[in-house]
Amino acid sequence: MNKRNQLSDIHNSGQPYIIYKSSKGFDLYTNFSKKIFLNKKNIYKLFNKKDISKKIKNTDLLIGFFGYELLNNLIGIKVPKQKSINFPKGIFYKPEKKISFTNNLDDIKKDIFKSNNGFKININRNSYAKIFKKFQKKIRTGETYQIKICTKYKTKSKLNPLDFFCRLSKSNLAPEAFLIRDKDYSIISCSPENLITRKGSLITTKPIAGTVKKNKNMNKTKALSYFRNNLKESKEHNMIVDMERNDLSRICKPGSVKISKEKIVEEYKDLYHYVSLIKGTLKKDIKNLEIIKAMMPGGSVIGCPKISTLNLLNNQEKDNRNIYTGSFGYIKFNGDMRFNIIIRSMLNYKGVSEISVASGVVVDSNAKNEFNENYIKAKALIDLFK
User: Fold this and answer.
1) DSSP letters along 255-307, please?
2) Do 298 and 195 contact (CB within 8 A), yes or no?
3) Cβ atoms within 10 A of the Cβ of 344, count?
């Protein structure tokens, strides 16, 4: 049986599976022997030391996601009661089967999907402007230096997540793309941002801060010039890179944290991003729990300083973020890890599709531009419904 048929058979069987972008294509994980619903108490068991006396298999790992609220709780931050759909705060799976695919995922035969032909946004332009002004005052008084306002796009729908993911991978292939298909929910993601890659004692993070819309007059070279000469974009990027370097410095050997790639441009379907890559050498005997607590939630999608900004956001936002700005990835039994930041992602649950996005507010920001940037970030996912 070829791999395309395997993918079709797994999907059509109804069994849960996960697809994660790899350097050579995509990895599919299925035949789950464990499904762990995380909460504030049992999350610590996820990081228990595993037996690595024997050579590990490619399925000796736990793969899944941490929701935003759970990551706040892990670092001692309480999220006030918000409007919630009661989606799980985190789920991890133990796979017993792995299949690797090339970059060219074949489309699965389309199912007819139903939608109400329109997304509703939880914060309109006027409401956004009011929140924007409130946060700019906080910036001027020094309570925060940058903060990300989250907006949600929602529509009632019934869809085939694999069909959507295949089409998304063709139109907007992203290095941290993933799909979770379970019996009662799915997550479709074209996340571009890696938060943690740990291999032995080496660790890297790739902060993204800076966005410009693609058009006929904007190519990659012009995007780089735009970022370099735009005070707001440069300031936002520098602050996030400094914060991520500081987060890494808490868990890495002194002097080992370096910027490996600084201020480069990555191209996506509807936009260009301003990106840097930071690496470091972990301190001896550092635990994965310590790494998670130092790095999550990812600063580039929160703002800085992280703790005070998280508190400001949590007290302002009325809707629970669910998966948004949480992290998806895996923990191998030998301690290696890979986690992204859950952005550019769609949660499908209880007949509703939810897309959350955010843009950064600094003292030089413009409310209209930031509101429009949110739509640009959501567009690749919204276009799948056309």
Assistant:
1) T--EEEEEEEEEE-SSEEEEEEEEEEEBPTT--HHHHHHHH-S-GGGTEESHH
2) yes
3) 26
- Select from 364, 384, 336 the least CA-distant residue to 199: 336
Q: Return the bridge partners of 196, or none.
A: 339
Biggest alpha carbon–alpha carbon distance for the chain: 64
Domain ranges of the chain: 3-207+279-385
Measured CA to CA, the distance from residue 376 to residue 150 in angstroms comes to 14
Instruction: Give yes or no for a contact between 114 and 157, defined as CB atoms under 8 angstroms apart.
Output: yes
80 residue type, one letter:
P
Tokens read off for 96: 């017993």
Torsion angle defined by CA atoms of residues 37, 39, 43 and 46, in that order, rounded to the nearest 10 degrees: 0
For residue 108, what pLDDT is reported? Answer: 58
Cβ count near 382 (within 10 Å): 15
For the stretch 233-262, pLDDT in tens is: 888 898 889 999 999 999 999 999 999 998
Q: What element of type H or E holds 229?
A: helix 220-229
pLDDT given at position 216: 87
pLDDT digits over 300-351, tens only? 888 888 999 999 999 999 999 999 999 999 999 999 999 999 999 999 999 9
Q: What is the pLDDT of residues 51-90, one digit of tens each?
A: 555 678 999 999 999 999 999 999 999 999 999 999 999 9
Q: Report whether 332 contacts 326 (CB < 8 A).
A: no
Domain 3-207+279-385 is found in CATH 3.40.50.10170: no
DSSP per-residue codes, 159-208: --HHHHHHHHHHHS--TT-EEEE-SSEEEEE----EEEEEETTEEEE--E
